[in-house]
Structure formats: structure tokens, C-alpha cells
Amino acid sequence: MRQNEPSAHPWMANSLADIKQAMLKEIGARSVEELFEQIPSSHRLKRPLRLPRQLSSEAELKRHLVDLLAKNENCEENLNFLGAGCWQHHVPAVVDEIVGRAEFLTPVWGSAQSDHGRNQAWFEYASQLGELLAMEVVQLSVYSWGCAIGHGIRMAARLTGRHEVLLPRLIDPERLSVIRNYCEPQEMARHIDVVQIGHDRKTGGLDLKELKAKISARTAAVYFESPGYLGGIEAEGAEIARIARAAGAETIVGADPISLGLLKPPAEYGADIAVGPTQPLGVHMNCGGGVGGYIASRDEERYVREYNGFLVSITETSKTGEFGFSLASAHQTSYGMREAGKDWTGNSVYLWAIANAVYMSLLGPKGFEEVGALILQQAHYAARALARIKGVRIQFPKAFFKEFVVNFDGTGKTVARINKALRRHRIFGGKDISREFPEFGQSALYCVTETHSREDIDRLAAALKEIVGK
Amino acid sequence: MSEKDKLATYHAPVWSEPVVMELGHPGRRGQIFAAADAKIRKAVGEARSLLPAAMRRRQAPGLPELSEPEVQRHYLHLSQETLGMMGISLFGTCTMKYNPRVSEMVAARPDLAALHPHQPEDTLQGILEIIHSFDLILRELSGMDQFIFQAGGGADAAYTNCCVTRAYHQARGELARRDEIVTSIQAHPCNAATAAAAGFKVVTLQLEENGYPSLDALKAAVSNRTAALLIGNPDDMGIYNPEIREWTRIVHEAGGLCFYDHANFNGVMGKLRARDLGFDACMYMLHKTFGAPKGGGGPAVGAYGCSRALAPFLPTPVVAKTADGYRLDHERPKSTGKIREYWGNVPQVMKAYAWARAMGAEGINEASDLSVLANNYMDKKLGEIRGLSRSNPDVGKWRMEMTRWGLGKLKEETGVGTADVANRMADYGIDPYWMSHEPWIVPEPFTPEAGEMYSKEDLDRWVAVIARIVEEAYADPDLVKTAPHAQAIHRIKSAPLDDPKQWAMTWRAYLAKHRHGQEAG
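ok -> C-alpha cells follow
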């Protein structure tokens, strides 16, 4: 037992004096300090780092982290109706087990052979999402839905040589802000104009008249969502795609994949490029850190050659009948071509692609139909229950999936005040959108999923009734 | 057992798992969702009746139908058919290190996994405190004044930097003129690529014999059109640019900003600080240097920090500490807006915080010591192997935490190249190494980075495997050229991957291209 040496850190096998000495001896250096000779002394930090006390004991560290996190309140101990791009869906236990496997969790890359299982799981992500979307090419996921839209728009700009995108005014401000960064400020030479299209007052769908008026030979793409930010299902998808095609523009559709057991796949109403969120498919909300985005298209070379990230193709091996999986058309990425590549790529959310693959395998066609139906029926039940409360109104009551806008103008109370009161009932009310969209007055975006029960919804309605009645 | 025998005892599991699309049986279920409550059904009717007729799905998606244990077993087998760093992975530039399980356990708790980013701030005080505390740790390590975690990886942080650069010059009315970003050929490709995607022209500096571009080349490249410099230091060859302070001064004099891509931070942690060298902003990869897992490519975090002068242009929100606790500051009028939804991969930030706390100042210093020691130890041993050469042989000084090596001579003499050797390594249970970013400056490159986790025995074994494969290359080159031989599958055919008639990115594409004809026949 060495007396005067601090304990070796559990994560550093060589942090022992005798090992360091042996390594120094092997290379012929006198001290570790000597090895930093390349750094001029004037560049060096001259004092020790001032950091909080070391917690090298796992027991102590765990206690510290758990105590900090206990200051949060979460969506299991509260009844949650927040959605707006990050949704509380059921995560099957098997999904958590698989993404927790160290072989998937810890590595960075490998080869098509050494990490074959991971590549196959990626291909199965794309294959299953391709079935939901009825599309043949699905790229490995990008950072988020907003990032997928951004890359999709830039693909369309390169495909058409045009520099304008038309998209709905009723869009998540988070996503819109991301999109604007992808489209670049006006000072930049390849700036893409973002032109917003208003909505039909009755349905909340895209205003086709305005779309027709604004679309032109400058338009690279028309982007719309179904279900959209405010939950609405776009009933005129085919007509929008027709208008876009007539103008020579690409149609990009954003769709929540958990809706696709019931809703028509975007390709069937004219989408050239489909994008959307991947978090609903088996990823926890993680305080917003569960988001991911998909991009998909038909298997046409002109599209394939414009993808920014990783496309995983099935191929054969030197053994007859054996499959392997590796990157297709890979040279076009920024890894292969630096600034001449298609946009840029890097680490993304590939572990979540595996979560998505497991989730889709567990659900199968019937599971997607069931979960979609349950969400749809519960959301509509909730909307009707809330609409019965005096002063409460549903903004677009007809065609929506899991989210809907609840207007409280008739109650004389603000959403902020109502949500604060709901907290006493241990309820997180819907997202306050009264500042984002002032035209809807005091309104909140409510989200109902398969994780809610009828009793939960009744409890919300009772609490709201009590609050607005006061 | 002799050392030689020990090297030859690995074989990957072979499960021959079919593609999941081929598995199952009609009617099998892996998850069931109960029908809506009777009262709900009565109130709203059939689900389909709630959808516009034109938007109803007509044909069920062609997904597999499997029982729950079948799904579990299939994906467990796929995980087993993944070497996944269960060997020894010295994947240069990625700083492979232990991802503590305790952080995974904590991250799975509902107090993190079941948080919604739009919850009221007073219900998020624990996680906001962690983010702010970690921000303070990074400020101490870098000398910067504010960090954000919105970027979903290192490249996304480079992109964040380009967006912040745009906003900064836009606010000064100079954006239209300042349309150039200067970088070096040795900088990560994402620096050049994000600059171009953000709308800038890219000026790329070439390297001198000493491993970095000359001051004269920099001076010639910089002008009143320069928006920013994006540069890493040390680079992937383990060479530190001792003139870097002069670089930041020159760029600042021309009115440009300086961004330090700190991807290669492991060897200089606690030794130097980006701000002290004159940089306005820097980036750390929490999934590399700070112990959060890589997940095979994310979820990751590029922590982006900057000076007080640049902070107003950061994406929103920024976590701030006030007298009443922690809050999210969304009201930042000069902000570039968002580069990704929400505030980042929050669990990864927690894991990085946990890593930094477990390491402490002394552990972080020790880790950079060990990683530089380990690299030079490996350099010594690799230098003794035939057919290998070190980049920049004239640089006589000790290298930083990684070195680029080349197998040009081996290739010339045996026909065996770096990709072959990487493939063959897996046959010894060693994760294939990182070769090099494009373009290859060193012929047939490979770039090991030992880091602080791996033991001396691991490093010895890694070098012994390289030595063994080189022996094989000289004795029986075909053995290496046809490798790997002990994996879940044999060597893949790569020709179909760039052939539109053959590539298939989904099972439906595969069926259409490769099976349709057979079935018809």
C-alpha cells in the first residue's frame, strides 16, 4: 500500500506513479511537464484551475446529482399537457434497454464489418420510417425537425436554383427561428427568402388564395405541416402540392410519424421531400434533449445527390447471400468535400435512430393504428370537454391530431393566470401562445397523447372549470 | 499463453440476423395500446371519422409484426454484432473515454427524462442549476464569459459560431463586405463546411513543413473582408502552433473574430485557456472531452462559449442566475436566433457536469498529463515498427495527445493500405482506428489517440496488434487485404454504394431493385 499517493482515479488506469514512471522511462523523458514543451510558457495558465471540489466517489457524486435534480418537478408527478415540438409519449421498456447497451451507447464509428449490428439497426430505422412515409430514401436523422426543414429547403434551393421558400405563418416560432438561420440573412449571396402564407380563418389550413398569389418562378419550395404546429391536419395537401408543382417548386411536407398509422403518408398527396420529428418514436422528452429530425424522399438520383448527411444502404458481402450495410453516396458530405459538400454534417442523434427502429418494430402496423386512434380520440374528447366550460373555446375544432388551441378570452383570465392556478392541481397547462400569435387572444396549445387517461382529461376539465368560474 | 496467442483469440458473435422487415408473422404484437375509454368512444366516435376523408391512410404501413421478446432479441443480437468500443478504441480526434454508468442511471430518472422544456421555470431549478454550474466550469477552463449548449455536436457548434459571426458583423453594418472565413486545411472539415453553408467564402491556408500555416500566409489571407478565423490547436498531428497569439492579433487588427475549435482539448485541459490566447469564442465537445457518451454519433453537444462582447449575439435562451434562482433568458434582441429547437441535449450536459465534478481540477489536469504521456509512449513504440512513418518527421519535439501516422511505405512495399489494416484490427478485437479527415495530407494515414482511460497494458496490446498486422502484410498481404475474417459479416462490396441502380437506403427500395425481377421470373 502506497502511503503518500492519492488514490488512483477510477476512470484513469494509468494515474499511478509507478506506471507513469515506467512510461516516462520508456520514452526517455524526465517528467510529464517536459512533454508540453511545444506550448510557449507565455501561453500556459500559471495557476491551478479553480473548480468545485472533486467528487471521485460514485456514491457521493450520485447523491449530489440526485439532490440537484430533485429540485425539479417532472411530468410524471404532474399531469402534463405541454407539447409544441416535444411530446410526452410512451417509451417502451425494450427501447430503453437497447439504447442503454454499451455497444450502441459509447462508440463513435467503427467499420461496416466490426460494427455491423449498428449499421443494420440504422438501415432498419430508415426502412421502417420509409414504410410509414411510403418513401424509398430516408437519411439518418439530423438534429431536429427544424434542422430537417432547413436542410430540406436548402436541398430544394440547390435542385431548383431558386432562392425563396413559402411556408405557413402558423408555424412553431422555435422551428421558424431555426429555419431563418438556415436560409441566411439578406446580406449573404445565397440568401433564401422566407415568405409566410396566412391561414384559412375557418380551418387553420394554408390560405390557398394567398399561396397562389405569392408563388412564382422564384419559389424553390413550398413547405407545410400536417399535423401542424397548432395540431391541425391540412386537408388540402394534394392541392398545395399541385400548385407547387405547377410553379416548378418542390413540395416539402412536415409530418409527425406517430400520426402515420392513420394519416395518409405525405408522398401520397404529393410531397417530394418529407421531414419531421423523430422524438415521438420511443425517445423521452429529456427536457427537449430528445429531439431529432428525419428527411426522406423518392429514390431518384437528383434527390439522393443532395442529401447532407448519412445514407445507409444495404449491400452484399464477399459471402454469397450475406448482407452488409454502409454509407451510400458518401463523398458528397462535408466529410468528403469540405466547403464544396452538401451543407454540412457531423455527430447528430444516431442513437435515437436506433430507439426509433426498436419502437417501430415493437408497434408494427397495428400498433401505429392503435396509438394514432387513441391519441386522436382522446384529444378530441379533451377538446370537447374543455369547450363545454363557460368562456372556453377551441380555435380550430375540426381537424386536429394530438394538439389543439384552447382560447380563454371568454373567461376574462389570462393563460398565465390559468396555468398558474392549474399548478395547484398539479397540472402543467398547455403552452401559452398568446404572445406568439396575438390574433388568437389568450390561447394555449394543449397536447393529449396515449399516456393520458380519460380520468386525467376529466381532471383537467374539472380543474379548469373551477379556475375560470372563480 | 504467449503474447502472440493472446492476440489471436477474438471472433465477433455471428447471429446472421435477417433484416427486421423479413421477420415476424401477421398478427403478432410487440406493443398494445388499449382502446379509448367507452365514454370517450361514445363522445367522439370512430377515430377515422375525426379525419378529413382525403387525409386518411388507405393502406397499412408495411412494418414487421413481431412479439415483444422477438424484437428485444433481434436488437440485442445487433448490439452484440457491434464491436462498439468493447475492444480498445483509440479513435483519434474523438477522445474515447469512459462514459460513467452512474450518469446514465441518473439521466434515466423522471427528474430529467420526464422534463418538458416549456415547464414553468420554477419547476426546472435543478436542471438549470446544473447547466449554470457547468457553464461556470467551462468558463474557468476557457476564460470565456458565457456558454450555451444548444448545438447538437461539434459541427453544429462551428455552425453556431458562423451564425454568431453573421449577427455580430450585421449589427456593425459590415456583413455584406465581410464575407470571408479563414481556416486551415488541417482544421476539421466542418469548419469550412459550416462557413460555406452560413454563406461565407472559405479561404483555406496550407501547411508548412513545421505542421502549421505561416504567419505570412495568414497575413496575405486576412483583409477587411475577413469575418472570422476558425482554427484548431493543437491539430490532429499533435502539433501546437506556437504563433497562435500572433494569429489572433492579426485577425483582430483586420476586424475579424477568432474561433477556437477545441475538439483537441484533452491534451491541454488546465494547461491553457482559449481567451488568454486571444480567441473570442471556443467550442468543447461534451461527448468527447467531457465523458458524455457518443451514441455512435449523438445525441451530442458542442458547448459554445464566447466573450462578453459576443454574448449578446448568442442563440437563445441563455441560462442566467438571478437573486431568485435560475431562469431562461429569451429576451436578447441582438441574438442570432436559434440553431436548434430548445436548449440542447440536456442529459448530455448533466453527464458532462457529472464528469467534471468527478474529475475535479486535479483529475482534469491528470487526464491531460496522462493523455499526452500515453501518446508519446505510443509514438515511441509505433516508431519501432517497419513500414510506419510519423507525420512531420522534422518536428523533433514531444507531440500533444495524438499523432498522425502513415502507412505509405507499407502500402508501397506490400500493397496493404490503411483501410485494410483498420479492417484487420477488428479481427484482434480492436476497434478500427480513425484514419484522417479529407484531404489526406499523410499517405495512408491513421491517427490514434490514447486518452486517459486506457491502461498501459491496453496501449501495449494495441501497438502489438499493429506490429502483428504489419508482419502479416509483409508475409501474406492477401490475408490483410481481404480482412476482416473474424467479424459478424465478411467484407462488404462497396461498388453498389455509389450506383443509383443498386443502392438501396430502405428495404422497400431493395425489394424494388433487387427482388422484383426475381419474383416476376
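Chain A touches chain B through 220 residues (CB under 8 Å).
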